[in-house]
Amino acid sequence: MNQKITQFFSNSKKFLGKHSPEILTGVGIVGMGYSVISAVRATPKAMMLVEDKKIQLNVNHLTPKETFITIWKPYLPSALSFIASSACIIGASAVNYKRNAALGAAYALSERTLIRYRDKVIDTLGERKEQEIRDKIAQDDVNNDQPSPKQIIVTAKGNTLCKDMISGRYFKSDIETIKQTINKLNRRLTYDHYISLNEFYGELGLDDIKNGDLMGWNLDNGLIEPTFNACITEEDEPCIVFDVDISPKYDFDKLI
């Protein structure tokens, strides 16, 4: 019995820790609603207290101080609820911020590790072997995600089948067009210091994606460097799979 109780509290603690932002936000929203309702309900009583106070003091108007002293008690529950609700919402934001910061740090560490690993592969096996490995990985990706005619986006910027590894979309373009586009974006990056992922896609003739305005590149992290891999679809159609060495990041528009 004691073991079950201990397990219950342990599971409850894990659940609350995992879902604390959602719980705090929900409590905050409910508390805000209660604050509004209780304030509306308290208003008639407050008005009666003001009128009684006017009669008691034999005046037509109360000063702001006299009004506050007269009506603060009916509005006290609303004020306390509002303060507590605000604290819940601020607390939820703080938890999310800490989690996102930790996630960003872990992502940056993983990316640095991956770059070091790739550089070591090049040192050990040579650039040609490293490129062969990349080609095989890209081919596996195409094999596992074959394009259908409805999936392929026609951009009027080339006729070669291409696949963007960031969004996973297939589209028509060619290597030279992609290189020219990235060179253009790098020039803008040099002057503007940052550029969003959706700006990147817009130059390629692709539609925006969700969160594409929240992710991008910052000059402090380096220029956009593309990588290309040659693949073949099941229909024996050549396909260029392209990626970038430095992945787009959140908070890209903040100067370091």
Q: Distance between the terminal alpha carbons, to the nearest Å? A: 55 Å
C-alpha-based Rg, rounded:
30 Å
What structural category do the secondary elements indicate?
Answer: alpha/beta
- How much strand? 5-15%
Strand order of the largest sheet: 1-3-2-7-6
Largest sheet: 5 strands, mixed
Would you report the number of β strands?
8
Order of helices and strands: HHHHEEEHEHEEEE
Binned, the helix content reads 55-70%
Overall geometry comes to elongated
Mean pLDDT: 78
Total tally of structural domains: 2
Question: Could you characterize what this model shows?
Answer:
The chain is 63% helix and 13% strand. With 256 residues, the chain is α/β, with parallel strands linked by helices. It folds into two domains: 2-103, no CATH class; 127-250, no CATH class. A hairpin with a 5-residue loop joins strand 6 (226-232) and strand 7 (238-244). Helix 3 (64-125) packs across helix 4. The longest helix has 62 residues, at 64-125. It is elongated. The model has no long low-confidence stretch (mean pLDDT 78).
In short:
With 256 residues, the chain is α/β, with parallel strands linked by helices. It has helices at residues 2-18, 20-57, 64-125, 127-144, 175-192, 197-204; strands at residues 153-154, 160-164, 170-173, 194-196, 215-218, 226-232, 238-244, 249-250. The protein has a five-stranded mixed beta sheet, sandwiched between helices. Strands 4-5-8 form a three-stranded antiparallel beta sheet.
